[in-house]
Design a protein that fits this description.
Number of strands of chain A: 17
Shape of chain A: globular
Strand content of chain B: under 5%
Structural class of chain A: alpha/beta
Helix content of chain B: 25-40%
Number of helices of chain A: 11
Largest sheet of chain B: none
Oligomer: heterodimer
Distance between the termini of chain A: 19 Å
Number of helices of chain B: 2
Helix content of chain A: 25-40%
Strand content of chain A: 15-25%
Order of helices and strands of chain B: EHH
Shape of chain B: elongated
Distance between the termini of chain B: 78 Å
Largest interface: A-B, 100 and 72 residues
Largest sheet of chain A: 7 strands, mixed
Structural class of chain B: mainly alpha
Amino acid sequence: MRALAYFGPGNVRVVKKPDPAIEHPQDVVLRVTRAAICGSDLHLLHGLVPDTRVGCTLGHEFTGVVEEVGREVKTLKRGDRVVVPFNISCGRCFFCERGLFGNCENTNPSSNDIASGVYGYSHSTGGFEGGQAEYVRVPFADVGPTRIPEDMEDEEVLFLSDILPTGYQAAEMGEIKKGETVIVFGSGPVGLFAQLSAWLMGAGRVIAVDRVPERLHFARQYNGVEILNFEEVDDPVMALREMTGGRGADVCIDAVGMEAEGSSLERALGIKAKLEAGVATALTWCIQTARKGGNVSIVGVYGPPWNLVPIGTAMNKGLTLRMNQCNVKRYVPHLLKHIREKRIDPRRIITHRFPLARAPEAYQLFEKRAQGCIKCVLLPRGEA
Amino acid sequence: MSTERPGDGLHTHLPAKGPGRVDDVDLTARPGVPMEHSPEPFPTAPERVVVQQPRVEVLQIPGRKKPAWVVSNAQPPRGLAGRLRRQAFRIPEHHPQHWMLLLAADRLEARLTRARRWIGFAAGALALWAVLRAIEDR
């Protein structure tokens, strides 16, 4: 089969690999029908995630058709169309039983502190091969995948694999109450879905912060939010305080993570010198722009071992910080209903489609946010 | 300051008012609340625990009490980078040295792969040159 593989920072190529096989009786093998490139894939591309091995297949957002079924799989059969959460979860460990599917303890031998197993996201999350390929192995097939309703298309539900539930969980962790003001840092796909979810949860104002004019324009069109381009103001924190009556926002959401712009000092320390795990500027701004007693919700990805974060400010302001990898499986039925009832139209954020053979080009485009790129989708067997 | 408020004529898929915008206002009705619920097995979770036996070397973090139920057999540790990775996995992950060694292994592996590729190209070019010389000499 063909797959998009990692060969070092800035270097991904489409290569031939052996087809995946059933390796555990509760596995299925999927023929991938759609795979998306996630903002967090760029952290891998930039060599910021430790133990990203040469030759690994990337991709943790995908849909597919069941091709092979392990002998103990009960809920899926050959030919079923499914969407697969990015987290690999056993469904019966201490954490899965409590709904913390993103923290499953039986799928990642390489770390206790990071996450469950994740498709195509380095050996720090188990080294499982990803879905930017023609085929992919899916462990615990009775737990993760969700059958796609017959009347729905793959692209309608593709983002249930990660970015839509992640954006929703970001807003949910903010514990937004009716009429509250929410600032969302980052207007990429997760940020967009966090903004939208904030409206669904009754926010009174939603402010999107980014530096890419096209993304802010899209956020305004897609979600009807207020926007702030932080590169057009002297001091983004002061500007946001001014926009929120000097008090700050009730809820701030970090949908950026470890490659934030906005502080050349932090980028020098985190990206160039690697003295911290990337850059926590967005999180810092969250803490600085939340009102006293407010909530900060973190879904932006940060790596080990540490980051410079003004934790004293958070303490002194009495902030509540909430964060986690998304427990995707918990959100799928609810968000599927929103999609079906047209409250959420995830397909509208797809700006580019590429055949798998041109995946490196798609990565370049997405990385540079060129041509108004919001979200790239790969078609493993088709033409774009 | 570049700020804009949504005005008339914006096209959004959310209705201006009504249930579409406020469907999930009730905190307790949100699907992930509370984030950690009382323990209950996932309805379709496997009834039987089957621990996958890896076909290759799988590095496991120190202090882990039991093997993972599923593992990946892809890209096992090998070569110089693999030796660094094995070294890293002797150090618990709350020590930064664990991560520094893994990052160093990543860079080393990428550079060696690139070097091998260039050596392959150079060897191929040299062989081609030798063949051409031999033909000319005849």
